[in-house]
């Protein structure tokens, strides 16, 4: 079998890492690259095998991958991962960690190749139909996508499994069969073993036609992406918050299209129609002071004033109190909040007295006078004036001397914390 698709998609002087499971598809892909490299010695190819540790055979698969690569004189790395299937099914969890490991191992300028084929694409489309997906889901797998700084290509997407098998026979390739592929309790295997053969027997071009439908859906989605990109950029601020009032004047279709793109850009999964309706009804239309919060897996959607926020699920740090013993050393904050450190080149806050201990807490109540402002205010009012959303108020490090609030780094200094002489410091909060 000749594979024009490979040479059409790849560069003869490119730098490629093949995700090599040792199964039929990736064995054919790797073999083609090895042959192609003989004609184009500048082509750089290596193999990456992910060891999931899920099957008792995982070690022997890794050994097989290494053996084949040694035979073909291709560098091969085995990447060991741990699959945690608590949040999603085992297949989805394995896929997530697999791609994380593969992309993390890529070198600058290297592109990732995976070997999904036409029948995989057809199965993906049928699975998307089963879930009731919209055009983005029905678009199935793109032949090419950008992932961070790297390209991910699927050069065999238009090649059928039967073609791959003939190629493997012709070149006497050996490959491994994952025993779990026979288990029809998995939806994909059920389609592969029991449904697709029936469809193919009746309509031999079914997979190719389904893949064409997927590509057409992908094209529509891309067009919408392009048409909506400018408007989405105008509505989104640098932190990713979405200014939503204009969405309420739009048709439902346009509002949903913008919300979907905003959510996926923030790292969320594609929301259902029902979820989008709830966002409109329960979050955008609710009373301003209602503090709505919708949970989506590991994320929450919140509203503050006229903006929507898509945030990782975060805990309140109200109960935390840390003692800052040595000002010359940065103080590490809990829950990935970074550090606070002292800057003695700026004289903003007074230094603590002998009997005052510096501590950092994450809550404040009561009435305060701030430096540089006339009159005092309730803490709640101060946060409102500063435009700090309620959920952030319990995650901002506050500097206290004993029981008295002195400052919120970068936001304010209280009258008690202000310095009246030339000695002093300021607290800097670094959130990396
Ligand atoms: N253990 C592995 N090590 C390296 N690459 C792998 C491994 N498993 C799968 N791959 C790569 O991913 C491709 C798709 O494999 P498979 O069809 O089993 O994945 P999947 O779980 O259905 O998910 P997806 O198709 O979305 O990646 C393979 O052709 C191969 O390139």
Q: Could you explain how this protein is built, in words?
A:
It is found in: Cytoplasm. InterPro entries: Lysidine-tRNA-synth_C (IPR012796), Rossmann-like_a/b/a_fold (IPR014729), TilS/TtcA_N (IPR011063), tRNA_Ile_lys_synt (IPR012094), tRNA_Ile_lys_synt_N (IPR012795), tRNA_Ile_lys_synt_subst-bd (IPR015262). With 432 residues, this protein is an alpha+beta fold. The chain folds into three domains: 3-117 and 130-181, Rossmann fold, CATH 3.40.50.620; 236-312, Chorismate Mutase Domain, subunit A (Up-down Bundle), CATH 1.20.59; 321-430, no CATH class. Helix content is 39%, strand content 19%. A six-stranded mixed beta sheet has the order 3-2-1-4-6-5. It has a five-stranded antiparallel beta sheet with strand order 11-14-17-18-19, with no helix packed on it. Strands 7-10-9-8 form a four-stranded antiparallel beta sheet. It starts with a helix and ends with a strand. The mean pLDDT is 93. The site of adenosine-5'-triphosphate has 15 residues, from α2, β2 and α4.
End-to-end distance: 52 Å
Question: Per the principal axes of the C-alpha atoms, what is the gross shape?
Answer: elongated
Helix percentage range: 25-40%
Q: Radius of gyration over alpha carbons?
A: 28 Å
Unreliable runs, pLDDT <50, ≥5 residues? none
Task: Count every helix, treating DSSP H or I runs of 4 or more residues as helices.
Answer: 14
Strand order of the biggest β-sheet: 3-2-1-4-6-5
* Number of beta-strand segments: 20
Structural class: alpha+beta
Number of domains: 3
In percent terms, what proportion of residues is strand?
15-25%
CATH topology of the largest domain: Rossmann fold
Bound molecules: adenosine-5'-triphosphate
């Amino acid at each position: 079998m000749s594979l024009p698709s490979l040479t059409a998609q790849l560069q003869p002087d490119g730098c490629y890492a093949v995700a090599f499971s040792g199964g039929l598809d990736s064995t054919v892909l790797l073999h083609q690259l090895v042959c192609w490299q003989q004609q184009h010695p500048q082509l750089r190819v290596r193999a990456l095998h992910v060891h999931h540790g899920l099957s008792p055979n995982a070690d022997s698969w890794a050994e097989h991958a290494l053996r084949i690569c040694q035979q073909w004189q291709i560098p091969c790395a085995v990447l060991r991962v741990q699959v945690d299937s608590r949040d999603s099914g085992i297949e989805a969890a394995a896929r997530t960690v697999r791609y994380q490991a593969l992309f993390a191992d890529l070198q600058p300028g290297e592109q990732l190749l995976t070997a999904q084929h036409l029948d995989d694409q057809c199965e993906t489309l049928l699975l998307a139909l089963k879930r009731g997906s919209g055009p983005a889901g029905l678009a199935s797998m793109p032949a090419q996508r950008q992932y961070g700084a790297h390209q991910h290509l699927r050069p065999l997407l238009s090649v059928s499994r039967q073609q791959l098998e003939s190629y493997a026979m012709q070149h006497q390739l050996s490959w491994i069969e994952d025993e779990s592929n026979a288990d029809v309790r998995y939806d994909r295997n059920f389609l592969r073993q029991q449904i697709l053969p029936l469809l193919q027997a009746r309509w031999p071009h079914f997979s190719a036609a389904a893949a064409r439908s997927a590509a057409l859906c992908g094209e529509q989605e891309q067009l919408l992406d392009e048409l909506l990109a400018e408007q989405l950029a105008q509505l989104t601020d640098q932190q990713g918050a979405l200014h939503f009032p204009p969405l309420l004047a739009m048709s439902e279709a346009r509002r949903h299209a913008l919300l979907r793109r905003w959510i996926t850009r923030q790292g969320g999964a594609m929301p259902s129609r029902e979820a989008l309706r709830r966002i409109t009804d329960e979050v955008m239309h609710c009373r301003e002071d209602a503090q709505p919060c919708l949970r989506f897996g590991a994320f929450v959607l919140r509203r503050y004033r006229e903006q929507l926020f898509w945030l990782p699920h975060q805990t309140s740090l109200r109960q935390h109190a840390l003692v800052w013993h040595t000002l010359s050393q940065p103080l590490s904050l809990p829950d990935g909040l970074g550090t606070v450190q002292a800057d003695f080149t700026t004289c903003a806050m007074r230094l603590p007295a002998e009997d005052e201990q510096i501590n950092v807490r994450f809550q404040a109540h009561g009435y305060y006078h701030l430096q540089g402002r006339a009159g005092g205010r309730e803490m709640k009012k101060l946060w409102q004036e500063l435009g700090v959303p309620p959920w952030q108020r319990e995650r901002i490090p506050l500097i206290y001397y004993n029981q008295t609030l002195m400052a919120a780094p970068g936001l304010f200094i209280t009258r008690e914390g202000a310095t009246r002489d030339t000695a002093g410091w300021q607290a800097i909060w670094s959130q990396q």
